[in-house]
Design a protein that fits this description.
The chain is mainly beta. The protein has one domain (32-157): Lipocalin (Beta Barrel), CATH 2.40.128.120. Helix content is 14%, strand content 53%. It has an eight-stranded antiparallel β-barrel. The longest helix has 22 residues, at 4-25.
Length: 158
């Protein structure tokens, strides 16, 4: 006869066994070459600080990863309900994919219209092993201690 306590105990032991063996069994083997080609991103979130820049953001981006750690991008991001002055703001950057399929990229915008400028961003991401999807989070800028954001983006290889 199974008692509720026995079931809870068995479930706890099973959870411990899975927790202790799962990380050791993962061999994701991602590299910079995992990100290769064009990716379409949907961007949503909010700039939290500085106060003058705070507000919601939403947009799209097209990013080209070269498989060697370099990227180019164009984006169109609405900030506080205001459309950008130029339709597609260009940017360049570098990226690093870790063996566990996490990584970062640094993005430097290069707008032709000064009002579309933003600080460089360091973006953290997780990519699928086959490189078909990338999940991105923007939290801050390495160039501006006052800049903080809570922006997420999901990208799909085209």
């Amino acid at each position: 006869m199974r008692t509720p306590g026995m079931i809870v105990t068995l479930a706890a032991f099973a959870g411990l066994a899975i927790a202790q063996t799962a990380p050791a069994s993962y061999n994701l083997s991602c590299t910079n070459a995992t990100l290769l080609g064009a990716y379409a991103f949907q961007i949503t979130g909010q700039i939290l600080a500085p106060a003058a820049a705070a507000g919601p953001v939403a947009g799209v981006a097209l990013t080209l990863f070269d498989g060697n750690g370099n990227l180019t991008q164009v984006d169109n991001v609405v900030h506080n309900g205001i459309a950008p002055a130029e339709d597609w703001r260009p940017a360049t950057g570098t990226y690093t994919v870790n063996p566990n399929c996490t990584g970062t990229f640094t993005l430097v915008t290069q707008p032709s219209v000064a009002s579309d400028a933003s600080p460089p961003l360091t973006v953290h991401f997780v990519v699928t092993r086959d490189g078909s999807q990338i999940r991105v989070g923007v939290t801050s800028s390495p160039a501006s201690a006052a800049f903080m954001a809570a922006i997420i983006s999901i990208g799909f290889r085209l």
